[in-house]
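DM from R.C. (forwarded with permission)

"hey, sorry to bug you on a friday — could you get me a structure for this? deadline for the figure draft is monday and I only need the backbone to look sensible"
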Amino acid sequence: MCCRAAYLERTLTSLAALVGLETMRVYVSQDGAALDVAAVARRFGAGRLGPPATRGYELWQHPRSRRLGLQQVRAQPLALSARVRLVSARLCCSSG
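My reply, with the result:
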């Protein structure tokens, strides 16, 4: 079993150490209602990752999505692959 709050804390601590962070906005998206995860996110937003350390900090909380069905899991890499190709094509064509 994973400990999402601990992973989030490690991630946000690492993020807070980045050079140039004051030019970026930070968004934390929480799927579900785990109070310990929300507490970690709020603590960082009120302290190390809030302005002026960043341009802004937002915590988005939303209900946990139901698990994907077998057909959705199979289609997901195809959709991602199509998006990557589209972005690659735009980069290739717009650089000239």
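R.C.: lifesaver. Residues 1-65 form one domain.
me: no worries. The chain has three helices and two strands.
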